[in-house]
């Protein structure tokens, strides 16, 4: 690897204290193409980045990934390409990846924090591919979130699952760890999306990653989870997940999921002005101009068809179409035993069939707008 990928200045390292830092970098050694970019992750020497480094050394070498793709006839597999790692000043550990692009969370934050059904299902299948690879190599990811999924603005066929700081070797030497509550620190990972196993302090297993992906899909498609407002009260989140994990899709498919009657299309919104106002929306005299508070300037900059799509999302017209697939997914995942191997092909098919009806594939360019 090149000896120096970027300026490891005091400023950059100071920003790293207490939390990992991910920056775009370029080679300074002259041994790599001038315009080739990398993603550089920095963290304290003994931070979670050490766990991530171990994952890449054990389970995600480039040759292993390529063999998997060929053996399973997978055209694209979003495992990061780790091209180097090391220590800086004996205090900070770094990992260097081929450029990851932008996180899905940053893309969601550009808009209304929602994905179209097509894009969500494309991403779901791509993440399932990654999870099958990881799981077959004795690890689980442990922290599936939009922050850890990356898109390449220059090539939207590229979807990468990154962020292996919470990766757990659930099956060392082919022997699955036993379920033991309290054997690990409870609630490790992103509270909104981690599995019930992680909440209880047992080692996450294959079902844990799949459960987290289900929660992510609900958030991307519906905009909110039943526990999204309770994140400061972890036990309340756990209780909500235990109570509503399988029934969430049913709620999402009902008009009441977003707290309003389903208007269906933009033109029908005016009849529901009171509800929209209670939710913090302003309802102008022309319902086609309905905008969420603070989003007016953003939508004015959008192309007309994009603005119309965003408004349709506000009317929840997208909800009924994805509920069946999502409900089936969560029901199957939540029924898995701790040590049970999931049927990844069947889970992919739940999202693949709707994509086929749209004449689309999971490996097409994502149906999402991403700026560099």
From TrEMBL:
Residues 1-351 form the Protein kinase domain. It comes from the Eukaryota. One of its GO terms (molecular function) is ATP binding. Coiled coil: none annotated. SMART domains: S_TKc. InterPro entries: CK1_Ser-Thr_kinase, Kinase-like_dom_sf, Prot_kinase_dom, Tyr_kinase_AS. This is Protein kinase domain-containing protein. It comes from Hirundo rustica rustica. The lineage of its organism: Eukaryota, Metazoa, Chordata, Craniata, Vertebrata.
